[in-house]
Amino acid sequence: MRSSLMPFGPPVSRDRVITSFPKWYMPDACLQLKEHFHGQVSAACQHRNMGTIGLKLSKVVVVGDLYVGKTSLIHRFCKNVFDRDYKATIGVDFEIERFEIAGIPYSLQIWDTAGQEKFKCIASAYYRGAQVIITAFDLTDVQTLEHTRQWLADALRENEPGSCFVFLVGTKKDLLSGTACEQAEAEAVRLANEMQAEYWSVSAKTGENVKAFFSRVAALAFEQSVLQDLERRSSARRQVGDGDLIRVEGSPPETQESKRPSALGCC
Ligand SMILES: Nc1nc2c(ncn2[C@@H]2O[C@H](COP(=O)(O)OP(=O)(O)O)[C@@H](O)[C@H]2O)c(=O)[nH]1
Ligand SMILES: [Mg+2]
């Protein structure tokens, strides 16, 4: 299937086309349990009633201790490679991934650190304006899970309260199996609930859950953006439509004033 939205740019690849709402990984640590797009969002997408939605892009930041596998996760998703010896290029900080969601073009701007996490001093500009915060830890190293609290606090400090979706991601799932994996996930789910985050286990090495995870990120961010857009536009309409504030030339002033005395009381 190819996208029909050529006017917005070249078609996105097939695995970036999202038509139904992607599912959570674990129901007891997920941000939303629903299985469909919000009714208003589906309707707006269907009617292409999106304003500037063609230009929509969300900033996603990935944080966590050095060596937990942040860069590998981004690379697996964006380039479908796993490079054991990959070193982040200093100064190159983000990848743009294009999607088509419910027929509408949408992009994620996924920010990787350039190794600054080694010094635990990531610049505030890195976090600012993030709609999604991904806190990553290594499933085989419980200390890295404990540190996610601090990484999240640092990222949240630079953003408006309640404005970000938070994900907790356990990496290197291929290194664990059976009870060990279940135990690590149970710990993570506890913390995810505390952080009000959605939990996912992934492996950049095998690719397990990587696409599903980012599809979920994209869909949640997209839906929130559309809802905000619709809300902004309807409140703008409400303001314009609030004709009580405007005196129409020739209309009897007493009827205007009887409605809104304070608005017309001066001059
Ligand atoms: N087995 C396994 N190793 C991984 C996985 N993801 C990353 N690694 C390894 O973990 C090390 C650190 O990965 P990197 O992505 O550079 O971590 P970062 O410092 O958080 O960006 C590298 O040697 C990777 O090859 C994974 O899913 N499975
Ligand atoms: Mg890295």
TrEMBL record:
<dbReference type="Pfam" id="PF00071">
    <property type="entry name" value="Ras"/>
</dbReference>
<keyword id="KW-0342">GTP-binding</keyword>
<protein>
    <submittedName>
        <fullName>Ras-related protein Rab-36 isoform X1</fullName>
    </submittedName>
</protein>
<dbReference type="InterPro" id="IPR050227">
    <property type="entry name" value="Rab"/>
</dbReference>
<dbReference type="InterPro" id="IPR027417">
    <property type="entry name" value="P-loop_NTPase"/>
</dbReference>
<dbReference type="InterPro" id="IPR005225">
    <property type="entry name" value="Small_GTP-bd"/>
</dbReference>
<keyword id="KW-0547">Nucleotide-binding</keyword>
<dbReference type="InterPro" id="IPR001806">
    <property type="entry name" value="Small_GTPase"/>
</dbReference>
<feature type="region of interest" description="Disordered">
    <location>
        <begin position="241"/>
        <end position="267"/>
    </location>
</feature>
